[in-house]
Amino acid sequence: MPLELIKEVSGVPEIEPLDKLHKVDLKSLQLGCDYSKKYIQGKLSCISSLTYGGNRTPILKVGLQEQENSDSESNTINVLFFGKLAKDCAKVFSEGDMIAVAGFIVLPSSTSKDGEHSLVLKAFEDLKSTVYVYVKSVVDCPTESLSLVPSTRYTYTRLDELKAGMIVNVYGVVKFFKPPYLSKGTDYCSVVTLVDQTNVKLTCLLFSGNYESLPIIYKSGDIVRFHRLKIQIYKNETQGITSSGFASLTFEGTLGAPIIPRTSNKYFNFTTEDHKMVETLRVWASTHISPSSTLVKLCDVQPMQYFDLTCQLLGKAEVDGASFLLKVGSFLRIYSLHTKLQSVNSESQAASLALEFHLHGGTSYGRGIRVLPESNSDVDQLKKVLECASLTANQGSDGGICRSECEDSFPTSSGSVSLFEVERCQQLSATILTDHQYLENTPLCAIFKQKAPQQYRIRAKLRSYKPKGLFQSVKLHCPNCHSLQEVPREGDLDLILQESAVNPLDSKLQNTLLYDSKVWSTKDQGERKVAVHFVKNNGILPLSNDCLILIEGGTLSEIYKLADKFHSVIPVRSGDGDLELLNLSAPFLIQGKMHHYGCKKCSSLKPIQNLNNVVDKTTWIPSSVAEVLGIVPLRHVFVMTFTLDDGTGVLEAYLMDSDKFFHIPPSEILTNDYLQESMEMIMNMFCPPGKKIDTYPWLECFIKSYNVSSGTEQQICYQIFDTTIADDVI
Question: I need a labelling partner for 239 at 20 to 30 A (CA). Which of 208, 231, 260, 640 fits?
Fold first, then answer.
């Protein structure tokens, strides 16, 4: 055997397979000598990731540290394993393991570092190399593939305790996954989203050169164990990735099902503590994780639906020369299968609609096919159903397509999206979903029959939208009282400031501990006086690009000029014993071209002297300024109405977006020509002027229904949420 495990009891090997071989030490190694019947022994000091050389030959590099001569300057040597031996060793090796390598060749090393030997060893099966790994225990687990493993005690980290840079072991319940697929490089990739009792989600991006080394997941709700998962931050979200020595086990998540680990590794550690962990997660998931609603029977499917199908392969046919190796009789799970309505023409009757099933290309939403083992509980249930099915059901078949009695009940819409166009889903959606991918698509006609509140996943086209003037869609929204108001126009702001400019300045409020003041008189409007108060930072005036100024008596044009030079500007007026903010119809803070407004209803204004409580007096973060001044800040949002059409009905949905949907800050679009053009291009792409609706792109959206009362009348309204524009659209 190229790889053998030797059990140790109290530090003594049960067998001595190396008795007939001669042991050599590092200092005696020489080039050109025969080491076919000799061995070298040591501890694994480092293990590199499995790589692939020419002809995709697996290569594993390890550092072997000699124990007898640990004080020697060169007590470590690199060992390279090739082929199947490399793959087998990669599954078993852990840093600190004691191993012996018999039958190897010695070559010069061109990359040796301090403390490493100037030679390198190579071992592979054709050379009849054998690797011996000393292990300390046998793990008792109900699986034939389990064998001797090192008795390492693993510590598992909760998902809410993960931090960037950590390499951790975790348990979790699968909430979403993509079956392994070939990445753009040479490796296979799988995406898995986990959740545990902390209700924290972790998305893992897993890569391996070996398809079988990735987690064997069959459906959402499965339980996984990951060892040596590296944690990083990507786009402000915590993410897990594979690191050296990554390994996984998968278990069925169904309560009462046998706890049998799924893995391609022949050797792994599974203790009674692991058994309890799986049982605990099963119990928690049964009450906190919704069972997969995507697993449905053929008799229950509806048009325009995505679902997972568990079935048996009865036959296959070559279509275009491309094939996937599936054996007739295999049990399969097809992920994200799509039902389509297709026109069926007949000489004896008018065109009717039939239901077709399509598995689209790519891996979006977990699309793919996986062969299920006979031991899978879903397969066992399917086999029982098939065994009970009547064989006479097919004997009366004449070989034609059997249509349902209600087949003709699928309506075609007049003057709307063609149902045949609805099913052209090879065309990618111009929007993507940011959560809830487990929800299946719902036709609009079915939504109208449901009571509120509900959440739906839909696929439709944008028939029209309001307002047409995109600048009119920008509103101010209060997160507290949820009120909406218009963004003040420049003419209105100028009028508010002019009215405030007639208020006299109070000299007693100038040059305080908070600020230094400067007053000047204008030559127009009866020598209007303007005061500028420069806020100090720890008693020192900062540079203009870090300085906040308070302005009394200034016009809008004057404030704009000052905002170009200073970091921030606050319009104020003299009050009773302190400067005070203007009416909140005006901005409470101006930074460049950005105006920050506060809610009149929810704010409780505090004295300007409270600016002393701002910790960082160089960045002047708007939320910090608002907090010390008792202001509830308003958010700039896009507010639009989308009229959506999916061929089964037309629905109006309300969109309120800060920057998630369009990826455009609504606070900046009013003053940025480029952003205005980008917004216009997006809407023209969604709803191309002068073209038929069948040529419009598809929009995949989440919408939620809610009740609105007006007097004695109640109406159901709809709002788009957790949806964003696809990256290739922007």
Answer: 260
Contact 92, 135 (CB under 8 A): no
If one compares 471 and 599, the residue with the highest pLDDT of the two is 599
Name which residue leads in pLDDT, 580 or 423.
580
Tokens of residue 505, six digits? 């300045």
> Strand, helix or coil at 364?
helix
Cα–Cα distance for residue pair 105/99, rounded to 1 Å: 17
Distance CA 707, CA 693 (A): 30
User: Buried b / exposed e across 109-136, counting CB within 10 Å, b at 16+?
Assistant: beebeeebbebbbbbbbebebbbbbbbe
User: In whole angstroms, how large is the CA radius of gyration of the chain?
Assistant: 35
Which residue bears the tokens 């598992």? 156
d(CA 716, CA 708) in angstroms, rounded, equals: 6
Residue with tokens 């697996």: 58
Mean pLDDT of 73-102: 85
CA distances to 292, 363, 388, 442 from 439, rounded to whole Å, are 9, 17, 32, 9
User: What is the 3-state secondary structure of 540-600?
Assistant: ECCCHHHCEEEEECCCHHHHHHHHHHCCEEEEEEECCCCEEECCCCCCCEEECCEEECECC
Nearest to 227, CA basis, from 46, 93, 99: 93
What per-residue confidence (pLDDT) applies to 398? 44
Residue 149 host element (H or E):
strand 148-149
Cβ 358 vs Cβ 425: under 8 Å: yes
Q: Using CA atoms, how far apart are residues 173 and 193, in angstroms rounded to an integer?
A: 8
Cite the beta strand spans of 209-322 per DSSP E: 223-234, 237-251, 306-312
Sign of the CA dihedral running 114, 118, 123, 128: negative
146-162: pLDDT as tens digits: 344 444 578 999 999 99
As a whole number of angstroms, the distance between CA 157 and CA 166 comes to 10
How many helical (H) and strand (E) elements, i.e. helices and strands, does the chain have?
10, 37
- What does the pLDDT read at residue 318? 67
Q: Which pLDDT does position 322 carry in this prediction?
A: 54
| Residue reference for tokens 């392994």 | 180
- Which has more pLDDT, 348 or 496? 496
d(CA 192, CA 226): 11
Q: Is 676 exposed, middle or buried (0-12, 13-18, 19+ CB in 10 A)?
A: middle
Residue 41 has pLDDT above 80, yes or no: yes
Query: Which residue type is seen at 481?
Result: C
CB-CB contact of 609 with 572 (8 Å) = no
For residue 531, the SS3 value is strand
- Report residue 428's pLDDT band, with 50, 70 and 90 as the boundaries: low
Cα dist from 694 to 199, 299, 417, 420, whole Å: 42, 30, 6, 10
Report which DSSP code applies to 391.
Answer: G
Phi, psi at 132, each rounded to 5°: -115, 130
| Helices 490-501 and 556-565, axial angle in degrees (round to 10) | 100
Cβ atoms of 452 and 716 closer than 8 Å? yes
Collect all residues with Cβ–Cβ distance below 8 Å to 692 and sequence separation of at least 6.
Answer: none
Q: What is the largest CA-CA distance in the chain?
A: 111
Spatial separation of the C-alpha atoms in residues 483 and 474, rounded to whole Å: 14
Q: Give the type of residue at 601.
A: K
- 152: helix, coil or strand? coil
Dist. CA 278–CA 142, nearest whole Å = 14
Neighbours of 209 (CB within 10 A): 17
- Angstrom distance (rounded) from CA 191 to CA 179: 7
Residue 344 sits at φ, ψ, to 5 deg, of -120, 115
